[in-house]
Amino acid sequence: MREVTGAQDLVDSLLNAGDKLVVVDFFSPGCGGCKALHPKICQLAEMNPDVQFLQVNYEQHKSMCYSLNVHVLPFFRFYRGAQGKVCSFSCTNATIKKFKDALAKHSPDRCSLSPTKGLEEKELLALSANRDLSFTYTLKSVPVPEQEAAVPEPAPSHPNSDTQLPLPLGGLPSAQESKEKRTLVNSGR
Q1: From the first residue on, what is the mean pLDDT of each consecutive set of 10 residues in the chain (189 residues)?
Q2: What range does the domain containing 88 cover?
């Protein structure tokens, strides 16, 4: 079991794990549940050498944990290759079966031809936006396919007129939106 030193270390560890299952244990040295569960997690780590276990000390990395929406301890996230995060949950000694079940479900040997995913893009952006962390992430640009000679459609015309009316920026409201507006108007809101 290895302790994560910061946001970049976490991101790199997940990306470098390949298809290996990675369990991230968010803990606090002052958390009674974390202390009680730690020996069992260490035992499971020894019994599963093909699984990479990482620990994130909440007290040392509060800002990073906040950016990753970790607010309850002990908390676990399981990551696997191209799938990225496969599950996340909190558990205690009383609910250790949840941890064992997740480990059994996601541990089987599998191979993916896709690149390793690691953290979700929104999590990477949250870490990057956090000024307390020295982590930078650049949004991946997605190529926009060129449209073939798009011909603009004429704007709809008013039924009693020969002139065309411009569409509002959002386009015409859907039947559902129109019904909702009528309902709101009819109910006096």
Answers
A1: 96 92 96 95 94 97 96 95 91 89 78 69 86 81 53 50 47 48 45
A2: 2-129
In angstroms, the Cα distances linking 163 to 153, 159, 170 are 15, 9, 21
For residue 24, being part of any structural domain is answered with: yes
Bridge partners (DSSP) listed for residue 136: none
Burial of 38 (0-12, 13-18, 19+ CB in 10 A): middle
Q: Is residue 140 part of a domain?
A: no
The answer as to whether 159 is a domain residue is no
Is residue 10 assigned to a domain? yes
Please tell me the total count of domains within the chain: 1
65 noted as active-site residue: no
| Cα 92 to Cα 41: distance, rounded to the nearest angstrom | 11
Indicate yes or no: pTM above 0.90: no
- In angstroms, the CA 38 to CA 32 distance is 10
Annotated active-site residue in 31, 65, 87, 91: 31
List 34, 42, 87, 111, catalytic entry:
34
